[in-house]
Amino acid sequence: MKTTDYPKHIEKDIAQHVLPLAEKYRLACEDCRHIEKSIAQQQDAVDTVQARLDELKSTTGLRDAEAIQKQMREKAKAEDELKMAERTLAALKNEVLPPSVKARDDARAVCGFKILELMRQKRIEADNQVNAILRAAISEQDAFIQAFSDVANRCGVSLPLNDETLRPGILTGADISDIESRLLVREERERIKTSRQENSQATQSAQPAAETVQEAAPSNTLLTGVAEQEDCVVKNED
C-alpha cells in the first residue's frame, strides 16, 4: 500500500513558513560560533601576555641600572596589556556572547515551534488517511471471519470464532473494540465541532446591523447586546 507523499505534500508550507526561520537559526548559530572563536583567540592573547609577564617577573639578578629600568618598563607594559586583554575577554564572554546565545536559542525554539504547529495542522489530513486504513483493516478481518462463519453454518458445524489465533493480522479483538470506540468518539467530536461552527456562522450572519453597533459599546462582559441590557434593567427594578 502506497503512503502519502508527505515531503511533497508539505513542501510549499515548509518553504514558506519554516525555511526562513531555519535560515535565521543558521545565521544565529554562525554568529555564536564567530564570537566563540573570538573568545578563544582572545584567551590565547591573554595567556601569551601572562606568560611574558611571568617570565619578566622571574628574571632576577640584574645589576645594570639601565637593564633594570628596561625590565620594569616591560613589566608595566605587559601588565597594562594583560589588563586590557582581560577586559576584552570579559566583555566578549559576559556582554557580547550572552545576547548571541539567547538569539540562537530563541531562533531554534521558534523554528521548532513552527514545525510542530504545521505538523498539528497537517495531522488532521493524516488522521483521515490513518483512520481509513484502520477501518479497512477491521473490514478485512470481518470479511475473512464472516466468510468462514458462513461456510460453517452451511455445513451445520460450529467454529471457535473467538479464538484469537484465527483472526488475521496482529490486531486482537480487544484492539478492534478499542479502535472502533476511539473512532466513534472522534467522529462524534468532529460532528459537534462542525455543528458549532455552522451555528456560529448562522448566528453571525443573522445579527442585524444595529446589534453589531451595540457590540462596540463599553461593557464589563465580553458580549454586549439588547438582551443583556434588558436583563440589567429587570434586575435594577427588582
Give the helices and strands, then pairings.
Blueprint: H1 6-9, H2 11-58, H3 65-155, H4 173-206, H5 209-214, H6 226-237
Helix pairs in contact: 2-3, 3-4
Model description:
The protein has 238 residues and is mainly alpha-helical. It is built from six helices and no strands. It is elongated and about 125 Å long. It starts with 5 loop residues before the first helix and ends with a helix.
Q: How does the major sheet shape up?
A: none
Contiguous runs where pLDDT drops below 50 for at least 5 residues = 215-238
Instruction: Return the average pLDDT rounded to an integer.
Output: 83
User: Topology as H/E string?
Assistant: HHHHHH
Ends apart, CA distance between termini: 71 Å
Q: Approximately how much helix is present in the residues?
A: over 70%
Structural class: mainly alpha
Radius of gyration: 38 Å
Question: Could you tell me the strand content as a percent range?
Answer: under 5%
Work out the number of β strands: 0
The helix count comes to: 6
Shape: elongated
Quick gist of this model?
With 238 residues, the chain is mainly alpha-helical. It has helices spanning 6-9, 11-58, 65-155, 173-206, 209-214, 226-237.
Question: Key features?
Answer:
disordered C terminus, mainly alpha, 238 residues
